[in-house]
Write the structure tokens for this entry.
Amino acid sequence: QKEVEQDPGPLSVPEGAIVSLNCTYSNSAFQYFMWYRQYSRKGPELLMYTYSSGNKEDGRFTAQVDKSSKYISLFIRDSQPSDSATYLCAMSMYSGGGADGLTFGKGTHLIIQP
Amino acid sequence: DAGITQSPRHKVTETGTPVTLRCHQTENHRYMYWYRQDPGHGLRLIHYSYGVKDTDKGEVSDGYSVSRSKTEDFLLTLESATSSQTSVYFCAISENGGRAGGTGELFFGEGSRLTVL
């Protein structure tokens, strides 16, 4: 069993829809959870960073962590064609950032249809 | 945008030839990383550096070596390239790493696409 599982998609939704992206994980020691967004032929960029269970909101984006179920989600409200990208979840046991103990999901390719 | 420059951005080479990819940063960040990204595998850490001349192996280090003689430069070398090393290579940097404390953010370069024939 992989430490982090993420459906690769593609996930195609119409503009304006609410998008739900998810990851499951097996290592209960993960405490820090991140979502990176990667546009085609670009490097990933950090979108959201959360600690432990709960929700965090930033504009149209909400990150949700349920440690009891080992399940994290990213919701995008009022989705726009510019949101079309690959979304990678990442998680770590450590607060320090960097790549020490950082595990990435394989990414979900999201397409927002105009 | 974080000041990270990767070179070359595209390279085609033949099996058995040596290849060096360069990552240059202008942020003075201590930590630098090399990842490869492949369909079905996602991002995998090859090597990383936590200071000048201080490097360590990542998840998929076999067939790769690195060097860091200056804070701003991190080189990835494939001594004898193989077709399995065809991939997109990303350099990343971070201000802190591991348990040192920080925001948890990696800044990535734009990638170097390597094809080994």
